[in-house]
Amino acid sequence: MALSGDGGPVLLHPPSALHHHAVYPGPAxxxxxxxxxxxxxxxxxxxxxxxxxxxxxxxxxVHMQPPPVDRFAFAFDAHANAHRRRRRRGGRGSRxxxxxxxxxxxxxxxxxxxxxxxxxxxxxxxxxxxxxxADETTPLLPPPHPVVTIDTEFPGTxxxxxxxxxxxxxxxxxxxxxxxxxxVREMExxxxxxxxHPVVTIDTEFPGVVHDSATPRAKRSPKEAYAxxxxxxxxxxxxxxxxLTLSGPGGSHPVVWQFNFRGFDEKRDPHAPESIAMLxxxxxxxxxxxxxxxxxxxxxxxFMRSGLNHRRPRRGRSAPEPLTxxxxxxxxxxxxLAKMLFRRGNRRLPQKLEDFRRRVELxxxxxxxxxKYIAKTCSRLGGLELVAGDLGVQRRAxxxxxxxxxxxxxxxxxxxxxxxxxxxxxxxxxxKIDGLV
Length: 437
Prior knowledge:
The chain is of the alpha/beta class. It is 30% helix and 13% strand. The chain contains 13 helices and twelve strands. The two termini are 59 Å apart. The relative contact order is 0.13. Residues 13-80, 91-118 and 160-171 have low confidence and may be disordered.
């Protein structure tokens, strides 16, 4: 416990604490950990690495030097305050970003912006027991020390009501397979969760790619890239799996849905053999797909009746805010879904890229985001696994090349990319699909 006034702080601390905090002169909320000798931890001669003689525990003298002025943190604090003022005025934006590392050598948290350095001060930390409590505390009561700063030590915590987004154990997420017999029930469950989980992250599995271009991927124009996507999707026809993860302010929902579709025949339908072999190696059961898989027409009917449909008001709302749809390198994901869901006239994808964009917005709304495209703007390059590993995001359930597991990894990756950004990614990057912009 520290009492502060115009003359600076006076510290009182019980001797049984395993570590101590010291307060330097200045505002009470500028709390900085001091270097304090701990009588319960041996010290060593740095040259010979031998234990040094330890004095008996008693009153401790703390020699403190406040940290240097962190101008980097000061600048961040001004930036964060401006962001909060915009939020109070009703402006839309992402959460205040986590501060970057400070050049001074400590995290530049806004609440730790320091005043100008104070002269070093020696502060006594007397041990307070039952027999001397009155003598040690009574003379210090205000005035002249009206500010009381405290710190406590306790045995830890056993219960918590908070549900942080990071980290969750791998066994806390269920990848739930959806077949023809539980399609209606699971779509109703998804619709009920959308008011609190308005971010929908998807991933798809399909029979590969059979048409390619001589132009390297990095040098293709958006129109060339779309023409290649269109030729493959129209030729291969069948979507095999759709993974769907719902997220909200508290993170992703602990259930990830994996829709399994029927219709693909390996002996009859065109496909890329290496892609089919890879999907089999990662656990896809093609025999069960044809036996228990969802008919694409039935899925379309349930989608149009559900809250996922951008044109249908969700329960309890007359004019709902659009959902946010997320994919990683989502050109094929949204192309296969748009082909399946759009039932008017020609079932093929539109000839022109502009018409395809309008169809995507018609079905999914204006807030369609591509995590790979946004990662590129942050100088993060590579595929899903590479970018996730670069950001320290781990796969929490399932295996690669399963649509449900990949959609969950994409959702976690998107949170890791977006959280540090101080702008509304939907306004800046909405509708921009990687390769098609």
